[in-house]
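Observation: inputs received (chain + zinc ion).
Thought: call the complex predictor directly.
Action: predict_structure
Action Input:
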Amino acid sequence: MIKKIISPYVVLLPLLAPFSSLSAAVTFNFIYEDPSDFSAESVADIEAAGATLGSYFNETATVNIKVDANITGGLTLAGASSLYNNSNNSFNRGAVGAKIIHEIDGDITGLGYEGTLSVNLTSSINWGFGSSVGANQSDFQSTMLHELSHTVGFSSTIGEDGSSFFGSNSWYIFDYFVGDSTGVLIDRDSNDLDIHQDRWDAASVGGAGEDGLVWYGENAIAANGGEAVYLYSPANWSDGSSGSHLDDAYYTDENYVLEALAGRGMTARTLSAIEVGMLKDLGFDTVSVIPEPSTTSVLALSVFAFMLRRKRVNS
Ligand SMILES: [Zn+2]
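Observation:
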């Protein structure tokens, strides 16, 4: 359970207009495990979040996301995953991202979907839907955009101890860009893609700003006016949150979709220039600044990268 004192968000970021006259976009196709779990307004918000995220891509692709209401615990708002190709000693893209860039097309998982989205629709969460999000409610549409962003690639596979969730230095492509204040943490020049253990141990729980984890993608940095971009690195490691979000503790005056903890009231429903820059860093929509994944087979998909968003509450 996460408890944190916050001020209510009132400032919305300037909207980044993602709509291209060429109308290339990624279409998110949602497959509801049990449609009776979802109200019309929740479905409308999920669809709206998918349309928003899809509009940032200059790619034409359809990705399939299985949606369920299987999160029933406490303050966790929602979670999401991409199926993942576990290829050792490399930087891998999840199935959602692979489909967006047409690394592989078709039903690449054999399951009919490439990612999952799970939401908490129990009474423990006071959701606000559509344009009706009260000051004490959690913004459902913003949370869906947050989760869907995880499915395309906003997620780290570096665990608390510095090893990959999937073992054998099989990293998500996101981790190519994860560093501390002195540089990236996975040694790109080593055949084994080892992590700099001591530096990881310090920065992963280093706290706010430069003492914590830092993003080394040039597009995001450029979008941030040349300033460093910081990742969520609380002193107490948080599985599913640490390393996979923008730094809540540093960006206290901003309201980013990809911060780990959700405030109350209506929050950001569009990605910031920094977040779109991170998408570019991840190889979407622009010339890749990262090595192409070496694998050519995404058939052995068996594990999920699952990221959680938790509710930010007043304590
Ligand atoms: Zn998250």
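Thought: report the result.
Final Answer: Helices lie at 40-54, 95-100, 140-152, 197-203, 218-223, 273-281. The first strand starts at residue 26 and ends at 32.
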